[in-house]
Amino acid sequence: MGIPSLTPGQTTVMITEIKDGVHDMIFRSLFSSPRARRMRKAKPPADQSRLQSEPAEAVSLTIEVPDDLDKALDIVRAIMCDCDDLQVRKVTIGERGIQVAVLAIEGIDDSGRIDVSILRAIAVDSREAPGAYTTPRDVFDRLYDQTLNTVTVHTETDIRQMIEAMLRGRCAIIVDGVPKAITADVASIPGRNVSEPTAETIIQGPRESFVERQNINTAMVRKHLHTPDLKLKRFDVGSRGKNAVAVMHIAGVTNPALVEEVYRRIEKIEVDAILSGGIMEQFIEDDWLSIFPQMATTERPDAVVTALLQGRVAIFTGNTPLVLVVPTTLDHLMHSPEDLYQRWQVASSVRVLRAVAVFLSLTLPSFYIALTSYHAEMIPTTLALAIGASRQAVPFPAFLEAFVMESALELLREAGIRLPTPIGQTIGIVGGLVVGEAAVRANLVSPTMVIVVALTAISSFAIPHYPTSLAFRLGRFFLMMLSSALGLYGLVIGLMIILSHLSALESFGVSYLAPWAPFDAKDIKNTLLRFPLHTLTHRPSFLKTIDQRGQSDAQSDRPKTGGGHSDV
Q1: What are phi and psi of 174, to 5 degrees?
Q2: First-to-final CA distance of the chain
C-alpha cells in the first residue's frame, strides 16, 4: 500500500499510528492462522455496518517497502516492537551521502559475516569505485550485483516477507530512495554438531546422526547420493512459526503419485508451528486412531538413503534430528540399519530372533495369565507344582499381579528417561533388583511373575523402532485384560483383533502388512529373512516405483560360489 510523505514534525505521530494501527490490524491478520481468519469471517462483529464502510486497503496482505529509509525503519520497528534483538546499522556512502541501513536479528545472524561480507565490503567498494554510488538506484544495483560477498542474495518489495527472511537468518539492506530491500544469507543458527546416534546404535556402519539443523541434514543425505535425480522441495508450514519442511525423493525411481500425495498433505496442514517430526507425523498420517506408527522415524543418514533408493520419500522438519520416511510397513519397522552391513546368514538369524522377541513382548504376560488362571491342566505337572508353590503366599490373582508388575516396569522406564543418564541407569538397577527382590520377599509377587516380566522387558528392547515398541507395549495390556477374562480364548480373540487392525491399516496407500498381505513372493527376499545382496535385484513392488530394478545385471548374475570373478 502506498505511504504518503510526512514532514519531520509528524514522525512521532506516524510511529504511534503504525504501532496502534499497523501492528494491531495488519500484523495480526498476516500472522494469524487461516483457520482463525475463517472463524472471524464466520462470526462478524456487531457493528457490521462500520466494517463494511471501511476501505478494502485497511487489511491489505502486503506492506510495500517505501522509498524513504526512515519510514521503512519506522514500519519495521513498529512490527518488531518489544524485540530487543533487532539490530539496525545505518551507514552513509558515496559522494552524495546516500544512506543505507543494514538490519539483522541478534543470535540468528553471524555478526562476523555481516561485518566482513556486508559492512566492510560496502565501505571498501564505495571508496574504490565512488562513481558507482551516485544515485540510489545505482547503489542498489551495485550492492546486489557485485558488492555483497554472499552466495544467496534476493530482493524483496514486501516488508512482511523481508522480516520473515530476517527471522530465517538473513540480513536486510535498505537503500534510501529505492522501494526495495536486499536480503543476504548470513545465518548462524545455534545447534549441536554431528555426533553418533543415540537411539539407533549399531556395531558396523556409519557413526553419524542427524542434528537439529535442516540444511545440515539434507547435506548429509546428498553426501551419500551424488546425483541430480535427488530432488528437494521446501514448504513453509505454520501460520506463526513458518517452519521449513523439506521433502526428498529420487526422480525416476519414486512413484510420482506418492510424491504428490506427500506434497498435498503437507500443504493442508493448518497449525501455528511444526516443532518436530512427531507433530508433523500426527497431521499427515492415515489413521489417527491407530496406536501403531504409520511412518518410520530415523536419525541415521544411511537409513534415509536406503529408503530413498527403495522408492520411499523422506520428510525433514527443522529443530529435530529425526527424519520421517513414508510409506512404511510393519516389516520395514522391524529392520535395523545394521542388517544391511551384516552377512546374509547373520542378518537373517537376527531378524528371526527379533520376530520371536516381538511376539514374546506382546503375548508372554497374557499367556501366563491364561494358563495359571484358566488352563492349569495344560502346564506340565512338575512345572505346575513349582508355579503353584511360588504363588501360594501371594494374595493377588495372576492378572492383578501381572498388571502391577508391568505398570511398575513402565514407571521405571519413564523415570529412567526423564532423569539424567547416570541417575536414570541407577534408577533402573535399583528398581529391577532391589524393588523386585523386596516385592518377592514380601510375598506381593511371585518369582515366576518376575521372570515373566523380565523376559517381556528384554524382548521389547529388541524392537529397533521405539514408537513401534510403544505400540506393542500398549497392546500387551489389551491382551492381558482379555486373557484375564476369557483365558486362551480371549488371547486368541485379542490377537485376531490386532491382526485385523494391522491388515486394514495403510501408510500413504500401501498396506501396513505388505508384502505379506497382499502376498508378493518377489518381495519376500528382504523381509523375515535377508537374502544375499546380489539376489535383491528389484525394489519393493508395493511401492510402485518407476524403475523397478534395483541392481545391475552384472551384480545379479554374479557366481553363487567362490572362485568366480565379478565386476561389482
Answers
A1: -115, 130
A2: 64
342: cell is: 551384516
* DSSP per-residue letters across 146-194: II---S-EEEESBHHHHHHHHHTTEEEEEETT-S-EEEEE-B----PPP
Cβ pair 328, 315 in contact under 8 A: no
Round to whole Å and give the CA distance between 253 and 143: 42
Backbone angles phi, psi at 245, to 5 degrees: -120, 125
Q: What is the domain count for the chain?
A: 3
Judgement on whether residues 296 and 427 belong to the same structural domain of the protein: no
Q: What size, in residues, is the chain?
A: 568
Residue 7 CB-density burial (10 A; 0-12 exposed, 13-18 middle, 19+ buried): exposed
373 and 496 in a single domain? The answer is yes
What is the CB neighbour count within 10 angstroms for residue 5?
8
Whole-number Cα distances in Å, 19 to 12, 76, 225, 275? 11, 10, 50, 30
Domain presence at residue 74: yes
User: What grid cell was written down for 534?
Assistant: 546380489
**3-class SS letters over 375-424:** CHHHCCHHHHHHHHHHCCCCCCCHHHHHHHHHHHHHHHHHHHHHCCHHHH
**pLDDT tens, position by position, 324-382:** 999 999 999 999 988 888 899 999 999 999 999 999 999 999 999 999 989 888 888 88
Q: Report the predicted TM-score, pTM, of the whole model to 2 decimal places.
A: 0.78
Quick: pLDDT tens for 310-328.
999 999 998 888 999 999 9
The residues, any chain, with a CB within 8 Å of residue 522's CB and separated by 6 or more, are 515, 538, 541
- Which residues contact residue 325 at a Cβ distance below 8 angstroms, ignoring those fewer than 6 apart? 295, 296, 297, 298, 303, 304, 307, 312, 313, 314, 315
CB-based contacts of 559, cutoff 8 Å, min separation 6: 565, 566
Q: Which domain holds residue 66?
A: 8-185
Comparing CA positions, the residue from 157, 176, 172 lying closest to residue 71 is 176
